[in-house]
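Please go through the sequence line and token line underneath and see whether the fold suits the sequence. See right below:
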Amino acid sequence: MEEGCAIYALALSKLLPYNTDIGVISNDDGESWGEGEASEYGEFTHVYLDTPKGTVDCKGLRSVDIMADDFRLHSYTVEGLWHPEIFAAAFVGPDDNVPLYGTKKDIEMTRKWIEQNQSELLKALL
């Protein structure tokens, strides 16, 4: 899931009854975002949700190392952790003014998809 990983993490955060944080895996060899708050961070390669039950992305509960391995990253940094609303305001939007694409409609559609298609993951996180 490219860029959609941020949408997924934000949608999942809305389904959980406890506080969560957003983390970012940044490729140390990638390009950093050129403007705004994101310019101090490396390339936003993957976004995940940090929960009391563990770290989770669209592939389920798994470690950050395994997530980074999916992208064949030899050297990476974990950025964050941010409250989902703060993360969304700073880094996610419908245009090129932020590093990650996403709209409120995308997040809501993904939230509904998670409810309908990932009930086992939701049970594991509750």
